[in-house]
Amino acid sequence: MPEKVEMAKILDNWTEARRGDSSVPIEESTWRFWRKRRYVVGVLAFFGFFVSYVLRVNLSVAIVKMTANRTLTDDSSGQVRHTSGAEFEWDSRLRGLVLSSFFYGYMSTQLLGGWLASRVGGKRVFGFGIAVTALFSVVSPPIARCSVYLFVAVRIVEGICEGVTYPCIHAIWANWAPPLERSKLATLAFSGSFVGTVFAMPVCGTMAERLGWPSVFYGSGAVGLLWYVLWTILVRDHPDDDPRISRAELEYIKYTLGSSKNERVSHPWTAMLLSPAVWAIVAAHFSENWGFYTMLTQLPTFVSDVLDFELEKAGLLSALPYLVMALVLQLSGQLADNLRSRNVCSTTQVRKIFNCGAFVCQTIFMACTAYTLTPVAAVTCITIAVGLGGFAWSGFSVNYLDIAPKHASVIMGIGQTVATLPGILSPLITGYIVRNKTPEEWQKVFLISSAVYFIGALIFGIFASGEKQPWAVSGNEVDGNQEAQIISLHCRNEQD
């Protein structure tokens, strides 16, 4: 088999380099993550997604205060002295439009972001998208007071800028992540989204209550600009360009991934668009995002309307599911790579077990939420349903890199475009369903999410694959997973 011959050559080259040149070092095993530059990239990508979701969630929390009746209290007695109307008299349909406006822009640049990242580098595109979104966040309060439709336009522009972030991160991992560390590094970065949500829900709620809702936009924008400075200084697109990388790490990455710094990627568009494996990922991505965006945009309102909690408590309870999700995502990434490296399961089996298992559980717990609208039961079911999404992300989100590493940013751009539709449709549908804020209305919202999860599990379970697709292999290129397993095991044996 040509692949076996090519893999043998790669292993022989590595072995000869190690035996013939004692200056070729073994990569240091250390808990100091900053000594391995791929982990530094991972940590900064984590904070990039952290910031991007703070910028995205801020409105979901602030809008509760923006549209609530204002009261003045006596500082000494605490008695209410005066109650006036809300600063923004937006009905449920207009609130749905405002909340969904971000995603109109967000959907439009997903494919563009993946394509740009493959051309000019993921670092530039990722950083630019978050920095510009942060700038618009800072100017949001005066614009909102000027005109709701101008505010909607600003949110659309923010979505356009931030829409490039998710697809282009895979362009970075295509250069930095060894195949057997893909799950770990990708989920580390993606978990920043959920930690950002955990942070934003209670903190933005507290800021809105005590400092006023404009502080939510000013604060999140400032944090985003600070992150951009650090990202620009510390991160490079290719390991070869990083002046702080050790020779051992650079050699390890080159031997597992190959050097593609000057390679121009030509995307097989027809093959990609006709691939069942691609559309299985897209369907799973859509399904997960439906439940996620429904909770992201509506959970503070649901907790306030149905469970009757004040904004600060609503923010804290709304953050709980995403805290669980962030923790589960880290665990699932480590577990997925461990199962693959020990050959307990194939890559295809790992992706299907993690993704479909999570979706089935989410189907059950979302349905349970619909019929148990009491505070403890509802919060528990929502927390479990959203939290288990961490396992799904170790399935479909990393699967882009499994089936076509060099084209992953573009394919994720396609997936993100489709998977952004829930961010537009869900708030609008919820706005039409939930008009009187009754438990029965919210019940329909949760049942819709439950059904979408189940359909996603069926499609991914039937059509997904963890193997590099034939149209993604160029020339004598071999399967990256097999190659990395041989080298990784060889290195471990020598160290032992």
Describe this structure in words.
The chain has helices at 2-20, 37-66, 92-108, 110-120, 122-138, 140-146, 148-162, 165-176, 182-210, 214-234, 247-257, 269-273, 276-305, 311-341, 347-371, 375-387, 389-403, 408-419, 421-433, 439-463, 480-495, and strands at residues 69-73, 80-86. It is mainly alpha-helical and 496 residues long. The longest helix has 31 residues, at 311-341.
Give a quick summary of the entry:
By secondary structure, the protein is an all-alpha fold. Helices cover 75% and strands 2% of the residues. It has helices at residues 2-20, 37-66, 92-108, 110-120, 122-138, 140-146, 148-162, 165-176, 182-210, 214-234, 247-257, 269-273, 276-305, 311-341, 347-371, 375-387, 389-403, 408-419, 421-433, 439-463, 480-495, and strands spanning 69-73, 80-86.
- Please describe the biggest sheet, giving its number of strands, its sense, and whether it closes into a barrel: 2 strands, antiparallel
Give the overall average pLDDT: 80
Classify the helix fraction into a percent range: over 70%
Elements, N to C (H/E): HHEEHHHHHHHHHHHHHHHHHHH
Any idea what the radius of gyration is?
Answer: 23 Å
Derived structural class: mainly alpha
Distance between the first and last residues' Cα: 31 Å
Tally of contiguous helical segments: 21
Total DSSP E strands: 2
Poorly predicted runs of 5 or more residues: 1-8
Shape: globular
Widest beta sheet: strand line-up: 1-2
